[in-house]
Amino acid sequence: MTSPIHVNSEIGKLKTVMLKRPDVEVENFTPDMMERLLFDDIPYLPIAQKEHDNFADTLRQNGTEVLYLEQLSAEAIDAGGDELKNSFLEQMLTESGYAMGATHDALKEYLLSLSTQDMVNKIMGGVRKDELDFVPSDLVSAAEENDYPFLMDPMPNLYFTRDPAASIGDGLSINHMTFAARQRESLFMETIIKYHPRFANKGLNVWRDRNHDTRIEGGDELVLSDHVLAIGVSQRTSANAIEDIARNLFRDSKFDKVIAIKIPHNHAMMHLDTVFTMINTDQFTVHPGILGEGGHIDTWTITPGKGDGELKLDHRTDLKQVLKDALGLDDLDLIPTGNGDPIISGREQWNDGSNTLAIAPGVVVTYNRNYVSNELLRKHGLKVIDVLSSELSRGRGGPRCMSMPLVREDL
Ligand SMILES: NC(=O)NCCC[C@H](N)C(=O)O
Description:
Elements: E1 14-19, H1 45-61, E2 65-68, H2 69-95, H3 102-112, H4 116-125, E3 127-128, H5 139-143, E4 150-152, E5 165-168, E6 171-174, H6 180-183, H7 185-195, E7 205-208, E8 221-223, E9 228-233, H8 239-252, E10 257-262, E11 276-280, E12 283-286, E13 299-304, E14 311-316, H9 319-327, E15 333-336, H10 342-350, E16 357-360, E17 363-367, H11 371-379, E18 383-387, E19 404-408
Parallel strand pairs: 1-2, 6-7, 9-10, 12-15, 17-18
Antiparallel strand pairs: 1-19, 3-4, 5-6, 8-9, 10-13, 11-12, 13-14, 16-17
The chain binds citrulline (CIR).
Citrulline binds next to loops.
């Protein structure tokens, strides 16, 4: 029987993927909440959904099975029965700031009155104060900002399923994420892996779980081959989390090399996959803005050291040669976002022109708005399938960010 998670590359034919269809969470907030929620604008939901359906249909038409996070979550909770519904809710309320007390009780009663799917959708979409017939009389509520409209914040970044967890080999990392706006997200994936009949008790390896203080996000985790990973040292992923997952992988899996790549720590380039993706056996997209003079960038190739848990580091700055050595390639094509034009590459990277999703070697799904980068990819021999992107791109993520591959064919 094949494993429900099997990902040994960035580019093998995509067989199964998990998406989240954007719903009320992407418009259930005000402009002054945007920065904290990691959004640059408030999308127009009907169009965002239309664009997302276009993305999902494109994947299906190309032979990919599409699963949805929101459905898997409800199915997993139902599979665990009332006991799981209760413990899931307790954990979610605790992580939302209500470990106990009158507001905890009122929220719990409200959420438990809903069907499991509605409860999941409500948690994802956010709970406003005026939805509950409840006036808190405790000090915590009295002392807090009165005009804040939410009891539980919406989770607008859920449609970027790439980040809360990352498939690696026949397993995954379930991630402790950087910002509070996203930290609750990985509880859904943890619940799915533990309780959904498709995933539970199937021998899946959790290379690193969410119970950590150090942070890592899936947009930084790239599976370059069946034994090499690249991981961004970024705004969202810390060096100590990379060391931790490298130790676990070296001990328990066939992965024996992790290339840590240091990228600028800012919002436009928050993850490695916003500036660098693998799209064919010997082709990558790269945003020229991450490369210093002469195309240099800090990389550390990490391999197992001599002693138990020891790591060996090799610091180099010639990304192209580092990749060629790690992947055993004679040559390699690094394709610059926006064709390297200073205005176009900046603009198209901002709109996720580097964030391509390979659905087979040399076949990529991209946003249609990045037409200069798309044309260049075609010139370099890639098959480019571009999808609608006006509203989806407002969340600062592209096709790779919006998809969590669960199964890819081996190369
Ligand atoms: N892998 C990715 O780069 N994901 C995009 C995440 C965008 C989201 N607004 C965030 O800031 O986390």
